[in-house]
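Bumping my old thread because nobody answered last time. Still need a sequence for this structure:
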């Protein structure tokens, strides 16, 4: 028996205003032994109520929908249901859209023309608590983040990655500690994370930082 066959069932909610897309996704995922579509919604407003009713394990969500777009829906789901695991599935994969989706609280980003096996892998990884961003999109996102972070912020981030405290960073860069705190706050905001550890993890995943 395969590992997939014995894995816990992944309960999925599909959110897309195109019924043919939902039908295709439902067919593909329901054919997997460890996946089952338990709810569907055609816009963000329906999605909130459907999530509350069914409490799915993974939400597969489009960004461009009527009434409430994907970014607003992601933010609302994360606000109302903090543990929501959301995989964006979109035709659009610009650095700006990917970054906005991740910062809103998405767990992963996939494109609608990707091979089915990669999409299924994305669902399983998001369900396992991992972040999924295809390498080609991650490179684009890393470039965007690099352009967002100033040279000084990159220096501070590198020292954070070495485990340095604000006081140690200030001494190394010949800054006052208050200035370092401002840089750290800006880094967390730009990377869309809550603390220093998450900043390092996000920077490594996006290719901004390398830990030896």
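Sorry it took so long. Here it is:
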């Amino acid at each position: 028996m395969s590992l997939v066959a014995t894995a816990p069932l992944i309960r999925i909610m599909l959110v897309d205003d195109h019924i043919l897309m939902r039908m295709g996704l439902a067919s593909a995922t329901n054919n997997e032994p460890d996946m089952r579509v338990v709810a569907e919604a055609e816009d963000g407003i329906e999605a909130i109520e459907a999530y509350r009713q069914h409490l799915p394990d993974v939400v597969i969500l489009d960004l461009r929908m009527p009434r409430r777009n994907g970014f607003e829906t992601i933010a609302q789901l994360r606000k109302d249901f903090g543990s929501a695991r959301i995989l964006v599935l979109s035709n659009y994969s610009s650095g700006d859209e990917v970054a906005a989706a991740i910062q809103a609280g998405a767990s992963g980003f996939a494109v609608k023309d990707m091979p089915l096996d990669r999409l299924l892998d994305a669902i399983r990884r998001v369900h396992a608590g991992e972040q999924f961003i295809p390498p080609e999109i991650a490179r684009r996102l890393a470039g965007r983040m690099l352009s967002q972070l100033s040279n000084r912020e990159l220096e501070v981030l590198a020292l954070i990655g070495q485990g340095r405290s604000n006081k140690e960073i200030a001494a190394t860069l010949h800054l006052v500690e208050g200035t370092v705190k401002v840089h750290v706050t800006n880094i967390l905001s730009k990377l869309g994370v809550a603390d220093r550890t998450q900043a390092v993890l996000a920077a490594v995943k996006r290719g901004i930082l390398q830990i030896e």
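Residues 177-191 form the longest helix (15 residues). Let me know if any region looks off to you.
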